[in-house]
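job 3f2a | input accepted
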Amino acid sequence: MVKIFKVNGMRIKSFSDYKSDASNWVTLAGGEYYPDILKDACALYKPVLVLFGQLVKSSESSSRLFFGITEVAETWIRVQLLRVFKRYVCPVLPVEMTKHKTKAAKFEKEFGSKFRPINEVQKAFNSRPIHDEVMCALLWEYKDRGKKGYDLTERFFELFRSNFSGLQIIGPERAGKDILMKEVFTDYPNPNRPVDFVIKDKNSILAVGLARYDSDRGGAQEDDRTGGYANCANEFLGYIKNKGLKTKLIFVNDGPGLLLGSMWNDYASLEASWKGKIMVLTLRMVTERITKEWLNTKI
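job 3f2a | predicted structure (299 res):
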């Protein structure tokens, strides 16, 4: 059984208390319908496919095609070209890691042997229309990647500020650089540990936290998320305990992924593991669960 905790004699509901009607506490982000997106997707990505075709025709090898793409100056175009390259030439290519032009030679050396020959690439590319709806739809999937997470963080900041006018919450509200723990505590043992927000009362650090939107989680992904959170909690709260501080740890999680597998139970167990020093919550729990008493009480 997951233990509850009290602040000044007041019982604070645990994350596990909400499981019986969990779906009512999860916020669902909107989405887009297929094939409605195809017109806009084809309009957006046609220039990418045209340029990719030109590079394919002018390249004597798939390696030359790869280097040609990495030499494209505009970052957005270059990343889309790399995604098309991944589909046509090298399915194992880690696009996120090839965004940096300076690392192109290293990746070509590591993955070049797996590149499909350029004549096969050209034949495959020429077999498709330039308004390739399939490819455009695949690229469209990347367009708003991370948006749901940004929306979650922004709404959490809004909720917090509206309910705790006397406290300060800082961090990137949408896209932006994470706060590193060395910026919060100068002697933190893992100085480059990133967090999404910090809650302060004047110069007192009341809480730090992470915010994530889980669209779909299961299996290894689920274990990675909760395992990573557990490592973060043990590291951070071990430091807080040694320093004798009252700073809490907040995990703001939302989305239908919470309802899959053992995710809800895993988060509930994580919250209970430090007896009141961790709070896991969805947006709909913010006003009910976070209190000034909890933030200010040394547990």
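job 3f2a | The mean pLDDT is 89.
job 3f2a | closed
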